């Protein structure tokens, strides 16, 4: 199985990206396509849901971002601290963005947000890079695409994995949000994922 990327991008341009694709959006989609195909393909719905997740987590940019969409580490830490002190992060019990003794902060980074030191350590094993020592490596597009694809395929975020929601005739577009983040924006992401799926299927070449 392979994919005609020209057909896929033509479909995505209007259906997902409002008629225009930036180079950054093209690069982001390409990075995920490349990582997914390198693993031997599989269910196209998996790819669609991963792309929809990245679309949501990055605010549609398809580029690895810092949590809160901050321009740098300092601003990300400050924004999270202010939000936490204002009671706007009720589900957070441990302020994971606070810097360690070496000045490193493990706030969310990537196409899908990884937070907490232990998760950076887990993804270090996935990528072969020391993300604990250099957490900003998670902002590299190739690294972030690997984290997204492997993490969602193998259930490294919450324990739930893509095969739990998409297998055979089973397709739970809403429930699949539990792979990453409970039920947050689950319906919205599910709708976007179906749109990605239609474009991908149009470009499939058996």
TrEMBL record:
Q: Which organism's genome codes for this protein? A: Agrobacterium albertimagni
Put simply, this protein is called Glycoside hydrolase family 19 catalytic domain-containing protein
Q: Which residues are in the Glycoside hydrolase family 19 catalytic domain?
A: 48-138
Any one biological process term the GO annotation gives:
chitin catabolic process
Q: Which GO terms describe its molecular function?
A: chitinase activity
- Any Pfam family: Glyco_hydro_19
Q: Output the InterPro entries linked to this UniProt entry.
A: Glyco_hydro_19_cat, Lysozyme-like_dom_sf
């Amino acid at each position: 199985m392979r994919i005609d990327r020209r057909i896929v991008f033509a479909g995505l341009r209007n259906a997902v990206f409002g008629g225009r694709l930036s180079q950054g959006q093209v690069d982001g989609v390409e990075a995920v396509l490349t990582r997914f195909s390198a693993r031997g393909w599989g269910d196209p719905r998996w790819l669609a849901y991963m792309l929809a997740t990245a679309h949501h987590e990055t605010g549609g940019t398809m580029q690895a971002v810092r949590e809160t969409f901050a321009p740098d580490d300092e601003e990300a830490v400050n924004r999270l601290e202010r939000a936490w002190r204002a009671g706007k992060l009720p589900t957070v019990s441990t302020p994971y963005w606070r810097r360690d003794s070496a000045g490193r902060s493990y706030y969310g980074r990537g196409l899908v947000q990884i937070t907490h030191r232990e998760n950076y350590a887990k993804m270090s094993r996935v990528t072969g890079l020391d993300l604990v020592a250099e957490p900003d490596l998670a902002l590299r597009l190739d690294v972030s695409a690997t984290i997204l694809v492997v993490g969602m395929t193998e259930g490294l975020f919450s324990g739930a994995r893509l095969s739990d929601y998409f297998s055979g005739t089973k397709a739970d577009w809403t429930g699949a949000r539990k792979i990453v983040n409970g039920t947050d924006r689950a319906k919205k992401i599910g709708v976007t994922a179906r749109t990605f799926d239609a474009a991908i299927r149009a470009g499939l070449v058996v």
